[in-house]
Amino acid sequence: MLEELKKKVLEANLSLVEYKLVLFTWGNVSAIDRETGLVVIKPSGVDYAAMTADDMVVMTLDGKKAEGELNPSSDTPTHLELYRRFPDIGGIAHTHSTFAVAFAQAAKDIACYGTTHADFAYGSVPCTRDLTAEEIRTDYELNTGRVIAECFSEREIDPANVPAVLVHSHGPFTWGKDAAQAAKNSAVLEEVAKMAYLSENLQAREASKAIQKKHYFRKHGKDAYYGQK
Questions:
Q1: What is the mean pLDDT of residues 90-111?
Q2: Segment holding 198, helix H or strand E
Q3: Most exposed: 16, 22, 35, 82, by fewest CB within 10 Å?
C-alpha cells in the first residue's frame, strides 16, 4: 500500500539526518495521499540508520492504523490534525533543531530581519500559546495540532505563506507540498532561526514591509519570477 509514498517519506526522514537537524531518534516526517486520505509516517523510536520503507506506518486521517507492524510516531495525532485543518499541505516535518527550539522555549516568534527569511516566509514565524494543563493531560499530541491551527486562525496567517510554526516550550513543525519540501523547510527554518538569534544580539531591526513583500512574492505566487519556468 502506497509503496512509492513510503519510499519518499523514508527519504525525507533520512534527509533530516543529512541536514543535521536530528539526534538519535528525534524528529519525524510524514506525507499524505489526498486521494485516499491515507498518511504515511515514520515509526516511533526507530533508529534512522536502521529504518526501511517497509517500516513506515500508514494511518487513516481519523487515527486508525491501515498498515504497518510498528507503532507510528508519537506525534502522529499532531500531523493528522494539521492535515485535517490545512487541506493544501502534502507533507509535515518535526524536529528539535537547536535554534528553532531556543525560540520556542523562549516563547518568541521568529521575526523577519532580512531577505533570507522573506524568501522563506511572509512575515514572522509564530510561536503558539502554551498548552493548558488540561490540554497536556488529555490528548496532548492532538491538542498540539489544535493549538497550531488556532494560532494561524487567530492571527489570520495563511499556512501557504508561512510554512512553519514554533510550539511553545516544544519546537518546530514545518510543512510543504510533499515530505521532501517539508523536511527542506525544517532546514531553512533552522538557518533563519540562527540568523534571527544573531541579529537580535546585534540589536537589529525588522526588515521593512516593502522588502519582505518583494522578496516573498518574487519567489512565491502567480507573479513569481525567481528561478526557471
A1: 98
A2: helix 179-201
A3: 35
- The three-point CA angle 199-200-205 to 5° equals 80
In order of 15, 32, 33, 177, the CA distances from 4 in angstroms are 17, 12, 11, 16
Which residues does 196 contact at the CB level (< 8 Å), separation at least 6?
99, 103, 110, 111, 113, 117
The pLDDT of residue 155: 98
Place of cell 517519506: 9
Cα–Cα distance between 55 and 1 in angstroms, integer?
Answer: 12
CATH architecture designation of domain 3-219: 3-Layer(aba) Sandwich (3.40)
Establish whether 55 is a catalytic residue.
no
Mean pLDDT of 209-217: 96
- What is the tens place of the pLDDT at every residue in 175-207? 999 999 999 999 999 999 999 999 999 999 999
Cβ 12 vs Cβ 40: under 8 Å: no
Is 229 a residue whose pLDDT tops 80?
A: no
Tell me the whole-structure pTM to 2 decimals. 0.96
Q: Which of 88, 140, 158, 226 is catalytic?
A: 226
The model's pLDDT over 21-59, given as tens digits with 9 standing for 90+, comes to 999 999 999 999 999 999 999 999 999 999 999 999 999
> By three-state DSSP, how is residue 65 classified?
strand
Active-site option among 33, 109, 119, 130: 119
Distances (CA, A) of 209 to 120, 160, 206: 15, 18, 9
